[in-house]
Amino acid sequence: MTLTHFDEAGRAAMVDVAGKPETERLAIARGRIVMAPETLALIAEGKAGKGDVLGVARLAGIMAAKKTSDLIPLCHPLMLTKVRVDLTIAGPDTVEIEAQVSVTGRTGVEMEALTAVSVAALTVYDMVKAVDRGMRIEGIHLALKEGGKSGRFEAAP
After folding, report:
1. 74: annotated binding-site residue?
2. Is 76 known as a binding-site position?
3. What are the tens digits of pLDDT across the range 82-103?
4. Active-site residues (predicted)?
């Protein structure tokens, strides 16, 4: 079976995964948002004008993972079995974001994990942009993928 995003006429199409066996699949994505130390202090102290920035961003990332097929063309809708999004203050100016997504299915969850990290970072930006428009979202990448025919992938540290 050849998996492709093109149909017989060369048009974009969703891959037919009906013949693939269901397997346990896991993806972990990571990224970070870098900001002024004063902005991160507001977040850490719970003094941001819009409330619990990291809590809202965590929830936004989880919700985004569940809606990935609505956002990314040709992405399969999946019944996710686990979505975890962690935001960690990693220095005076950096919040590290990690999303772990699992499914038992016929296709992987890399896009769901990457979407969760992206939306969590964008949510942090949105919630404190009034005090720091110079924030940078950086390094969003697939860190680990397990399951399926292609097996395990782990990004170099």
Report:
1. yes
2. yes
3. 999 999 999 999 999 999 999 9
4. 126
Instruction: Decide: residue 61, CB within 10 A, 0-12 exposed, 13-18 middle, 19+ buried.
Output: buried
Do 103 and 28 form a contact (C-beta atoms < 8 A)? no
Q: Give how far Cα 45 sits from Cα of 93, 97, 115, Å.
A: 14, 19, 27
Largest CA distance in the chain: 57
Strand 23-34 relative to strand 136-146: parallel, antiparallel, unpaired? antiparallel
Residue 17's CB: how many other CB atoms inside 10 A? 14
Catalytic: which of 16, 70, 86, 126? 126
pTM exceeding 0.85: yes
What count of Cα atoms within 13 Å lies in the side-chain half-sphere of residue 156? 0
Catalytic residue check, 86: no
Rounded to whole angstroms, the Cα distance separating 141 from 119 reads 13
